[in-house]
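[stage:ingest] chain + small molecule (cobalt (II) ion)
[stage:ingest] validated
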Amino acid sequence: MIGRLNHVAIVVPDLTAAAALYKDQLGAAVSEPVPLPEHGVTTVFVELSNSKIELLHPLGEDSPVANFLAKNPVGGMHHICYEVADIHAAIEHLTNQGARVLGGGEPKIGAHNLPVVFLHPKDFCGTLIELEEVQRGDCASRSA
Ligand code: CO
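[stage:predict] done
[stage:export] tokens:
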């Protein structure tokens, strides 16, 4: 059911320092910081040849990553995102298997303007999983 690894999200305490680390030490192509106020994060996109890393930093009062950063002050891996072709079919399949789909099981529009849901980490080896519906075939402009 899951397709490509779309991205790995890492919450960082200092976005500028983290972007410099990926650019200068790891030699990766990094974007400028992109504020996504409706998602409560500022993101730096790290483009790899086969996937992306998203460096996330809390933005605004009600950031979904603020608690994570409070518990992990040096930062850490927050979630991994897999692509699915049909998010409603994926939700139905997972719910039938007893997995917990967060947010009442309803997809929301995610940071890439595509439908996403998150799955409970306790059901998936301690990893917060994001599923993103991606229609492959017209995918050239899907990132960011
Ligand atoms: Co994500």
